[in-house]
Amino acid sequence: MCKKCSGGFLLVEALFALVLLWTAAAVLLPLYMQIAMERNNLALEEKARRLLTIALYEEPLVGDTAVADGRTVFHVQARDEGGRMWKVCVRWNDYVGREVERCGYGKR
């Protein structure tokens, strides 16, 4: 080997760069997975809001109705609150396993 060579990487430098890259990937991958799961949960919440709007203003529902969308089941419960006031609640389990409920009131 020449003593005055100034260019090129040594094997140790290349390994160090790979270790840094793998460490960054190991730190960022769980964070990315959590962000993706929360994005999916927001999509479920948007579907629930649409169901709530439909149940309140467009389609008269009475009692408990189950609506399946993919692997998620939304439970829509409508009650008469007296007069022309209705309360509609939508319940579902998100991708983390939490039970979520959104309710709304409307007149008919």
What does this structure look like?
The protein is of the alpha+beta class. It has one domain: Pantoate--beta-alanine Ligase, Chain: A,domain 2, CATH 3.30.1300. The chain is 44% helix and 31% strand. The protein has one helix at 11-58, and strands spanning 63-69, 72-80, 85-93, 99-107. The protein has a 4-stranded antiparallel β-sheet with strand order 1-2-3-4, with helices on one face. A hairpin with a 5-residue loop joins strand 3 (85-93) and strand 4 (99-107). The chain starts with 10 loop residues before the first helix and ends with a strand. The relative contact order is 0.13. The model has no long low-confidence stretch (mean pLDDT 87).
Described by strand count, sense and barrel closure, the largest sheet is: 4 strands, antiparallel
pLDDT averaged over residues: 87
Total strands: the figure is 4
* Range of helix content: 40-55%
The radius of gyration is 27 Å
Shape field: rod-shaped
Class in CATH? Alpha Beta
Number of helices: 1
Low-confidence parts: none
- Computed structural class: alpha+beta
SSE string: HEEEE
Distance between the termini: 88 Å
In CATH, the architecture is: 2-Layer Sandwich
**Count of distinct structural domains:** 1
β content, as a range?
Answer: 25-35%
**CATH topology tier name:** Pantoate--beta-alanine Ligase, Chain: A,domain 2
The side-by-side strand order for the widest beta sheet comes to 1-2-3-4
Organism: Geobacillus uzenensis
Protein name: Competence protein ComG
